[in-house]
Specification:
Blueprint: H1 3-9, E1 20-28, E2 37-51, E3 54-61, E4 64-70, E5 79-87, H2 89-96, E6 104-113, E7 116-124, E8 131-136, E9 150-153, H3 162-165
């Protein structure tokens, strides 16, 4: 079998497990999570490509830069291919200038709860007022402790995907036509 045949005939389930991201996403009630955060980092990110089939994200996180490629989500929204590579801060800033609008601005808080760490994003700019928490898991069925500040689960709801927030930001929800909702 040649490489092209192998690429197009192998199923999603054959993707190496290290390249699979399994996460759940939740709304956040209030700001109580901040008092338990052990770390926070300012993030600016944009998308060179934000189609449902693949996202190519450029991010600055503190003094580091990253390029990330994500594949389509599973039907329940918990699992997808993810590849990330650190690049220089200068490279990430240059690539951000090429990204689709709007750029995402947020502060990410890291909050340890039980044996897991929640990443809680407080959005600014066109997404100001939105608070989302994500937890990465080893399996879809894995149990985890849910803190009091954790709100409604929105895993799989595409309007909460960062790539979608860059096209249809939180500030215009309910105001159709101001941004493209592709």
């Amino acid at each position: 079998m040649n490489l092209v045949t192998e690429i197009y005939t192998n199923s999603e389930s054959s993707i190496h497990s290290e390249l699979q991201e399994i996460e759940r996403k939740f709304l956040v009630n209030g700001e109580d999570f901040k008092k338990n955060a052990f770390k926070k980092v300012e993030i600016v990110q944009g998308y060179l490509n934000s189609t449902p089939e693949r996202n190519v994200r450029i991010r600055t996180a503190g003094d580091k830069g990253y390029i990330t490629i994500k594949g389509p989500s599973s039907k329940d929204g918990t699992t997808r291919f993810e590849w990330e590579k650190e690049i220089s801060l200068e490279e990430s800033k240059a690539l951000l200038r090429l990204c689709e609008l709007a750029i995402i601005e947020k502060v990410r808080y890291f909050v340890k709860v039980g044996k897991h760490t929640f990443e809680v994003d407080e959005f600014f700019g066109v997404n100001e007022g939105l608070l989302l928490a994500e937890i990465e898991l080893d399996s879809v069925e894995e149990d985890f402790e849910k803190p009091d500040w954790l709100g409604e689960e929105v895993t799989g709801n595409k309007k909460y995907y960062n790539a979608r927030l860059s096209k249809q930001p939180y500030c215009v929800w309910g105001n159709a036509g101001l941004f493209s909702a592709q």
